[in-house]
Design brief:
alpha/beta, Rossmann fold, eight-stranded mixed beta sheet, 8 helices, 8 strands, 42% helix, 23% strand
């Protein structure tokens, strides 16, 4: 796994999921997202629970397909399960294909736009820190599309960075997160550089805004599976 050192030099552009990011993305996730392995373990568990009778799993913004590979290892290939990953980054899909080919995986990968993809009826949709990169004016429409393409009783499991409705608490949550990143080996300079690169690219909602968004789009319920400071994993049931 290549170490993330992207922000040790001055930034020249806004953050994007290009070849440079794809090359270090697995390390970036582990060192930038608190308790990433634990939240992904919960995502995997509840996704597999929903696949008791088979079905399609879509991973929106699948990056290097690590989560789909973990799910595949736990469901027999002979079972009636299809695992589909979609990402609009050619570099991410290239890395994902190399990994899936190395494991002899049957995961289906598509370079495409999750806003316009032609979905089939599915049992599970997963979105790991992806909605926050979708512009708010079309984010609600994507969640509506997800709801429309889930079977009754199907689940939408998504993780997001969240903001607090209280300005003082929000600052404290950000400070807490920056301290976490320092413990992971990121310098103050790297933290500031990445924050500036993500300005106006990553647009998070509050906890309530995320939960209300899914409830407004055909989901019976939405619960928080995991939260650490300003990072949360939700499960919504169709």
């Amino acid at each position: 796994m290549k170490t993330d050192t992207l922000f040790t030099k001055p930034i020249s552009k806004q953050f994007e999921f290009d070849a440079e990011v794809a090359a270090v993305f697995d390390d970036m996730l582990l060192r930038s997202v608190p308790y990433y392995k634990e939240s992904q373990s919960l995502t995997r568990r509840f996704a597999i629970n929903a696949l008791e009778n088979g079905g399609i799993v879509y991973d929106l913004g699948c990056s290097t397909a690590s989560l789909l590979l973990e799910i595949e290892r736990m469901v027999a290939k002979t079972e009636n399960v299809r695992l589909i990953g979609i990402d609009n980054s050619a570099a991410m899909i290239e890395h994902a294909r190399k990994k899936t080919e190395a494991y002899g995986s049957s995961i289906e990968l598509f370079e495409g736009d999750i806003l316009t993809f032609g979905y089939e009826k599915a049992q599970v949709f997963i979105s790991n820190y992806t909605l926050q990169f979708i512009r708010p004016m079309v984010r609600d429409g994507l969640v509506h599309t997800i709801g429309e393409n889930l079977n009754e009783g199907g689940v939408f499991i998504f993780s997001e960075k969240v903001v607090s409705e209280d300005p003082k608490l929000n600052k404290e949550l950000i400070d807490c997160y920056y301290d976490f990143k320092k413990v992971q080996g990121y310098s103050e300079y790297e933290i500031v550089q990445k924050r500036e690169a993500l300005e106006n690219v990553l647009i998070p909602y509050t906890m309530n805004e995320n939960m209300q968004m899914v409830k407004n789009n055909g989901f019976k319920s939405c619960e928080v599976l995991f939260r650490w400071a300003n990072f949360a994993t939700f499960i919504a049931i169709r």
